[in-house]
Amino acid sequence: MTQPTSGTYFSIVSVLLLVLSVVAFSDNLFTDVSQPSNSDPKFIVHGLFGLAWYVLLATQANLVRTRKLRLHRKLGIAAFIVAIGVTLSTLYIFVVLWKGWANMEPEVRANRLLLPGYALCVLLAWQLRGRSDWHKRLIFIGTFFMLGPVVDRIYDPLVMSWAKPLFSTLYTRQVDEIAYLVFRWGSWAGFFLSLWLYDRKQIGRIHPVTRAGCTWFALVVLVSEFS
After folding, report:
1. For 6-32, what is each residue's pLDDT tens digit?
2. Phi/psi of residue 113, each to 5°?
3. Lower CB density within 10 Å: C or N end of the chain?
């Protein structure tokens, strides 16, 4: 049996991330377009940059899979510019909404700590674009760092929409809170684990980028939950 190409994992995961991001923000995009955040410039700009990032991520991964490397390199410039937009727009929202570390929920703390990691990963990926093994892992680890808002908002359409009506007698507020935390951290950590398993299968060891990214994510979770 032939081995799948090394680009298959990144192609599949990138498309999955794009689909999840669209579903997570489907209310903004389709079902509740009149909500206040849709008329707030800072959220509009941030949302457009975020969507553009996931679209480009899926496009770039599939261009590599189909060996269209020249177009991949050209679009890389656009992806880098979009990444700057994601970073700056997210930072602006953090500054505007800042209410002190002690007043933030753990998931919000995690998002703040992971933003510099995203920016650093993209910067290093640009500098190491000639080394594909480092480049692609840096891009995906950086993207995984920014998944907080997606996994937060995907819980309702993917879990609550069917679980609450189906288990209405069991689904108390406490159960919902526990289920949310398990889903949030479990699904988020699952993306890091998937890259870990990919490394084991493809190269027989854990790549330094994967190891560093998983370690930083674990530390951020601990700090954000217990500080």
Report:
1. 569 999 999 999 999 999 998 888 878
2. -75, -25
3. N
Residues 197 and 202: their CA atoms lie apart, in Å, by: 9
Q: Which two tokens stand for residue 180?
A: 């949310």
- 119 vs 87: CA distance, rounded Å: 6
Tell me the residue length of the chain: 227
Asked if residue 87 lies in contact with residue 119, where contact means CB atoms within 8 angstroms, the answer is: yes
- Identify the residue whose tokens are 């190491």: 128
Highest mean pLDDT among 1-5, 161-165, 200-204: 200-204
Query: Is the pTM here over 0.85, yes or no?
Result: yes
DSSP string, 154-219: HHIIIIIHHHHHHTTTT--HHHHHHHHHHHHHHHHHHHHHHHHHHHHHHTSS--HHHHHHHHHHHH
Strand, coil or helix: what is 227? coil
The Cα 191–Cα 34 span in angstroms is 33
What mean pLDDT is predicted for residues 183-190?
92
**Contacts (Cβ under 8 Å, ≥6 apart) of 150:** 17, 20, 21, 24
Both structure tokens of 55: 């679209």
> 183 CB contacts (<8 Å, ≥6 apart)?
151, 155, 159
* Tokens 């998002």, located at residue: 111
> HEC states along 89-113?
HHHHHHHHHCCCHHHCCHHHHHHHH
